[in-house]
Write a structure and sequence with these properties.
Strand content: 15-25%
Number of domains: 2
Strand order of the largest sheet: 8-9-11-12-13-14-15-16
Largest sheet: 8 strands, mixed
Distance between the termini: 34 Å
CATH class of the largest domain: Alpha Beta
Radius of gyration: 19 Å
Number of strands: 16
Order of helices and strands: EEEEEEEEEHEHEHEHEHHEHEHE
Shape: globular
CATH topology of the largest domain: TIM Barrel
Amino acid sequence: MPTPNRSNGLREAKYYDIQPEFVICHLCPHFCHIKPGNHGRCLGRVNHDGILYAESYGQITSIALDPIEKKPLKRFFPGSTILSVGSYGCNLACDFCQNWQISQRQADSHYYSPQELVDIALTEQVNGNIGIAFTYNEPFITFEYVLDTSRLAHQAGLKTVLVTNGLVNPQPLQEILPHIDAMNIDLKAFHAAFYNRYCHGPLEPVKRTIETSARVCHVELTTLLIPGLNDDEDEIDQLTSWVASIDRLIPLHLTRHHPAYKMTQPGPISIERLHLLAQIARRHLSDVFLGNI
């Protein structure tokens, strides 16, 4: 595989502290202690001689004009398209990751400046494009690039979207929210044990992100259902009851997983059980959509 081109957009990272032998990243709740020459667990931030750099800044692995419903967003400019871009890396390491080829390694990439991306998005307006979606991998780990690009996008009259796992600390979230119009946030389960064992990260910060973001921008949620792991009827009832306590109008996407990455079993949830869980979810929420069926 060709060596990724990471030279054009290297930027010093925001949200870190310098210690004598390492830096502490404060972007997400992992608070990685990163020694010189090493990356954080997200793979996108690196310590060079005691300075933390956003190494994945502007490094795009995937770019496409997608229907907005593919994000998935059902209640945000339906029928439109959106320029969708992804980088590499993630601050979770889900055993069932559906995009592990770019999220769990430093995949080959090409540099796009924020202005270049905005210019592409503007040219695609003739094809129904409303803006830019940061998706495919975890956008918060490319925080500086998403922030810079989103500011320019808003100045150009474009919408901005994040498709995210929601694992970010409160201060960077508050900084970026004024520049984001919509999010689809993964709520992978409603038990901390699931997050700890299968996602290798915490649940509570994700819930906090959902609560905070839903007060500021359009939010939809996605739960990828895995038979025997997060498809318990009581769990779906608790999950949707909690979402409804924020706003029962928040759309929820219940989506079938397919075996991927480290989790080759079980197979996808049955259509019949998916419909049963949707019925439970609709006791609390107005909009429940089914995905990958």
